[in-house]
Amino acid sequence: MREWTREERYQVLESPEQIRGLHEAIRKSAWRQTYHVQPVTGLSSDPNGFAFHKGVWHLFYQWCPWGAVHGLKYWYHVTSPDLVHWKNEGVGLAPDTYYDNRGTHSGSAISDGEDLYFFYTGNHRDEDWTRTPYTCAAKLGADGKPVKREKPLFGPREDYAEHQRDPKIVWNAKKQRYYIFIGAQTLDGRGTVQIYSSKELFEGWTFEGQLHLVGYESFGGMWECPYIVSIGDKDLLIFSPQYTKLPGRGESTNHNVYFIGKMDYDTLTFTPEGGYHHLDHGFDFYAAQGAANVGDPDKAILIAWIGLPDNHYPSAEEDWEGSMSLPRELTIRDGHLFQYPVPGVKELRAEELPAGNPSTDGQLVKGTLPKAGEMQILCGGGDLKLHLFEDADGKGALEISYDDKAKVLTVDKSGMKHRFNESVGERLEMPLLTPLKKLDLFIDHSSVELFANDGEETFTSHVYPEAEDTGYTLEGTAQVKLWRYNASVKDDFAV
Ligand code: FRU
């Protein structure tokens, strides 16, 4: 893996010409996605500023132009009419002021119908590298680019550690006020959320206090990327706790969790129904953020970074890494969160492919996977074993197995030729609420997203198969359908 100096990681992008060659080179990679948003060059991480505004879906991602490294972060802008077809728009926010001199870090958006407002963390660092995080704002200008508010809305609080970032903006109709949730760390090293409120978006912000998440006063060392939304009569709270291991998650210290419950803005208390849940059970899923202005009180639209802060991936050798997940529709039924790709994704089905005969009594089904497409497995009961991306000798596969008695699905990537992030674990389990009846797999060139029982639980991971390793084998009682997908994300050079 390449070693980067601080100067290299924090180099300012002066002209698109500096990275045109990088883009040309990575376009040829066999791992470039065709229906997922991915970095134009370099590294993409958190989704930012996700909102529907005047008929257009706006999405930004944390972007380091130079390679597969976390350095100077920009907001890179993509837009879509339908959450499926995405277009590169170029830089949205650049680290070009005193307040954000070392990065325009994560944040969110909100539309009031007339204007689209952005809230982000200005990552200021002094000469001696001391960090001061500012909560900054911007507004979409007439030319379609965010225009920064001249001064930050507020600076950091001294009664917290330096980790204070990732403003999530929400409107509370009952209080007739806007709220900003900020991921933070207390002075004694515990993860938390700071809450600010104001009657107006660009003025008047005051610190209300710290979120009380009942029962979670000590849960990890920093809660990155908080997100809160009401779905029907429940509230959903999501964040990414760091610096802690959680049961069943291998050696990883980065997680993305959710709570269903009720948020009381008078007491700043979120009372969860039960404990925390993993938003996704896969190896690579982080910093999830919902879209603002979805316009349906019974659902939310969520997107995440397919990646984790301390991980790196085989595409790093080609000087790029990262991808956005598919946007998912979230609903809550019987107190449980369901997540399923937005309906438009299935309109990408270009042709149905032969998928072997239905398997009964444990027969083997063999077939060939599309590079980009969908596999649907209707399960007939009992255990299942699925191998994806096998080579001609049946080797080198991603193994997905289902234990019917335990109602647990296990994904093991240790058999694949390209292994990565072995030290955090290569085998993870996904416990299900109900027996597995249906498994939907969305495969793109370097990612797989699994949805069990129409979104009851999900599992997202990067995979880096060799171009010719497209075989699959299924053992168990099941029926398989396969589709090849059309491309829907333009990989054009816009900076
Ligand atoms: C999460 C995160 C955020 C921060 C951003 C910087 O991955 O660490 O907390 O704003 O990335 O890129």
Description:
This protein is mainly beta. It folds into two domains: 336 residues, Tachylectin-2, Chain A, CATH 2.115.10.20; 142 residues, Sandwich (Jelly Rolls). 3% of the residues lie in helices and 48% in strands. The protein contains two helices and 33 strands. The strands form six sheets. Strands 24, 25, 26, 27, 28, 29, 30, 31, 32 and 33 form a ten-stranded antiparallel β-sheet that branches. Strands 13, 14, 15, 16, 17 and 18 form a six-stranded mixed β-sheet that branches. Strand 31 and strand 32 form a beta hairpin. The longest helix is centred in the first third of the chain and has 11 residues. It is globular. The mean pLDDT is 96. Bound molecules: beta-D-fructofuranose. Beta-D-fructofuranose binds next to strand 1, strand 5, strand 9 and strand 14.
Q: Pairing-aware structural class of the strands and helices?
A: mainly beta
The unreliable regions are none
CATH fold name of the largest domain: Tachylectin-2, Chain A
What molecules are bound to this protein? beta-D-fructofuranose
What's the CATH architecture name of the largest domain? 5 Propeller
Count of strand segments: 33
In DSSP terms (H or I, runs of 4 or more residues), the helix count works out at: 2
Mean pLDDT reading: 96
How much of the sequence lies in strands comes to over 45%
Characterize the main sheet: 10 strands, antiparallel
What distance lies between the first and last C-alpha atoms, to the nearest angstrom?
Answer: 26 Å
Number of structural units classed as domains: 2
The CATH homologous superfamily of the largest domain is termed Glycosyl hydrolase domain, family 43
Helical fraction equals under 10%
CATH class of the largest domain: Mainly Beta
Shape: globular
Radius of gyration: 22 Å
